[in-house]
Amino acid sequence: MQRSGELVQWNNKGGFGFVRDEAGHDYYVHISKLAPDQGRPRLGDTLNFEIAKGRNGRPAAVNVRVSASAPIAAPTMRDVKRMPDGVSRFKLGLRTGAATIMTLLILWAIGTGQAPVWLGGIYALMGAASALLYRFDKLYALNGSWRVSETNLHVVDLFGGIIGGLSAQEVYRHKTVKPRFVAMTWTIALLHTLGLAALAFGWLGAAVPGF
Question: Residue 87 sits in which domain range?
Answer without folding.
Answer: 77-200
